């Protein structure tokens, strides 16, 4: 399938292998009648490409983020238009895929990356029935979204290219079963019947339509109206993908022996299992969300903006004047991310340990570690704050530890007590609390955390972090967004006051 090369940053040989002709219509200068004639793709032919290891990983991570985002949105029970709008916004920003008429897009490259990402993730997600099912579900949602938003002419051409063996119902048969077929239509049935055309397919290939009684069944065939064609297409996409994944699983042991690809694939699978794509948090400069936090300010910022994991750590530190190694590390890196400079971090930790520790012990044993976390000692690496995925999956906490994610690592009773005592907006018997606990039960920890953010920031269900319905994937994103929202509110009040001020 792939021929990964260890040469990084070299142009792909595939581009030179492809016929490059000037296609004035699509404006990209690439010949779209070749490998990627359509925006939609059933991914039937494995790509025979010469790609770099870097591309192998980056394309897969980009697609993993999209699928994780879709999965997170689908667990939040949003109305379909809101779900679809959130997917559209995310795709536009993170994984655009233009139609042939898109003028400025680099279609060839977009489609190439899309294809590579899909095929690499097949390798990662074919390993278990659970992973396969989740992959097929989210890929289906992505395909459905693209199908619905595709250019109508291009979509029709794409469907023709698939050469489905659907039988078109001819006029004679249509007239013969007119009464039965009309029952499957909505609105003005007579009018709809005249313009509608039907396909015949084996009834078991459209279980959703049969289950919802949307089709007429006769002689083992389901009569599917053109308007419900999408069900047929999705069914075909899903079943082909399922079969292909099972086939890939059988061949996977050979790939496991590859020392270069094995770790990448393992990492992708574990990210998805924890319910999160690789986190894309980037602190905006040293000060995280853009403003410096001092040691004095931490308490106030914690009460208003820390996510549950950090509220828990900070609460334990305040109570015990001590945190064990991984707890200290999780909190130190988080504080660095929100904008606590090194000198202020030293003041903060010294104050928190208080009289329980001598200056000498602090300087000898703890100051070094803080400086190390800030990249000032040892290898001088600038360690980034830990993402939810890392917190959820690495260094599982023991009974004496306080690091980790409360949604994953607390018992249901402890979690309920912690949340209700930390957030006055949450009531033990409220519907919101039930939703949070249901998400935890289903192992959707980031969905539970996102719901806490919505409730505590007076956002409607489905608004997520208040930006495109985004879910929590990083504690620092939680805190940054919370501070940003507060700033927006204050700016709005200030602007209103200035507006209301009488002119002198
Ligand atoms: S989901 Fe992430 S941000 Fe929320 S509590 Fe868990 S680790 Fe922290």
From TrEMBL:
Its cofactor is [4Fe-4S] cluster. GO terms for cellular component: alpha DNA polymerase:primase complex. The keyword Translocase does not apply. [4Fe-4S] cluster binds at residues 309, 388, 405, 449. Belongs to the eukaryotic-type primase large subunit family. This is DNA primase large subunit. GO terms for biological process: DNA replication initiation; DNA replication, synthesis of primer. It comes from Papiliotrema laurentii (Cryptococcus laurentii). Keywords: 4Fe-4S, DNA replication, DNA-binding, Iron, Iron-sulfur, Metal-binding, Primosome. Binds 1 [4Fe-4S] cluster. PANTHER family: DNA PRIMASE LARGE SUBUNIT. Gene3D superfamilies: 1.20.930.80. InterPro entries: DNA_primase_C (IPR058560), DNA_primase_lsu_euk (IPR016558), DNA_primase_lsu_euk/arc (IPR007238). Residues 462-497 have a biased composition (Basic and acidic residues). GO terms for molecular function: 4 iron, 4 sulfur cluster binding; DNA binding; metal ion binding. Residues 300-478 form the DNA primase large subunit C-terminal domain. Residues 1-26, 462-504 are annotated as: Disordered.
């Amino acid at each position: 399938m792939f021929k990964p090369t260890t040469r990084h940053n070299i142009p792909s040989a595939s581009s030179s292998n492809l016929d490059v002709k000037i296609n004035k219509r699509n404006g990209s200068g690439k010949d779209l009648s070749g490998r990627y004639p359509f925006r939609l793709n059933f991914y039937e032919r494995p790509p025979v490409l010469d790609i770099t290891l870097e591309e192998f990983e980056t394309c897969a991570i980009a697609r993993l983020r999209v699928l994780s985002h879709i999965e997170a949105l689908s667990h939040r029970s949003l109305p379909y238009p809101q779900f679809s709008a959130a997917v559209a916004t995310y795709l536009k920003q993170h994984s655009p895929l233009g139609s042939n008429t898109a003028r400025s897009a680099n279609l060839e490259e977009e489609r190439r990356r899309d294809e590579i990402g899909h095929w690499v993730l097949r390798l990662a997600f074919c390993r278990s029935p659970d992973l396969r099912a989740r992959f097929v579900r989210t890929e289906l949602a992505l395909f459905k979204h693209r199908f619905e938003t595709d250019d109508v002419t291009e979509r029709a051409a794409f469907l023709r290219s698939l050469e489905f063996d659907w039988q078109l119902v001819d006029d004679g048969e249509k007239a013969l079963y007119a009464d039965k077929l009309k029952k499957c239509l909505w609105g003005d049935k007579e009018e709809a019947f005249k313009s509608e055309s039907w396909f015949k397919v084996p009834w078991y290939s459209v279980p959703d339509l049969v289950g919802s009684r949307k089709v007429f069944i006769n002689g083992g065939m389901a009569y599917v109206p053109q308007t419900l064609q999408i069900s047929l297409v999705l069914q075909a996409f899903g079943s082909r993908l399922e079969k292909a994944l099972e086939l890939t699983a059988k061949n996977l042991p050979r790939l496991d022996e590859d020392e270069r690809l094995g770790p990448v694939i393992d990492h992708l699978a574990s990210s998805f299992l924890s319910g999160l794509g690789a986190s894309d948090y980037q602190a905006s400069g040293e000060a995280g969300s853009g403003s410096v936090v001092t040691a004095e300010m931490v308490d106030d910022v914690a009460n208003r903006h820390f996510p549950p994991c950090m509220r828990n750590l900070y609460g334990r530190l305040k109570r015990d004047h001590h945190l064990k190694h991984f707890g200290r590390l999780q909190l130190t890196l988080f504080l660095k991310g929100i904008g606590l400079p090194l000198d202020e971090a030293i003041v903060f930790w010294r104050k928190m340990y208080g009289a329980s520790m001598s200056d000498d012990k602090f300087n000898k044993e703890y100051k070094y570690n803080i400086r190390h976390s800030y990249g000032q000692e040892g290898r001088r690496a600038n360690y980034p704050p830990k993402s939810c995925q890392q917190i959820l999956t690495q260094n599982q906490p023991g009974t004496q530890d306080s690091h980790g994610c409360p949604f994953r690592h607390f018992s249901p009773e402890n979690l309920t007590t912690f949340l209700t005592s930390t957030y006055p907006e949450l009531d033990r018997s409220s519907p919101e609390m039930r939703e949070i606990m249901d998400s935890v039960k289903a192992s959707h920890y980031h969905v539970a955390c996102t719901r806490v953010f919505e409730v505590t920031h007076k956002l409607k269900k489905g608004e997520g972090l208040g930006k495109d319905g985004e879910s929590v994937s990083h504690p620092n994103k939680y805190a940054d967004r919370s501070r940003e929202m507060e700033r927006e509110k204050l700016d709005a009040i200030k602007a209103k006051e200035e507006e209301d001020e009488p002119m002198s």
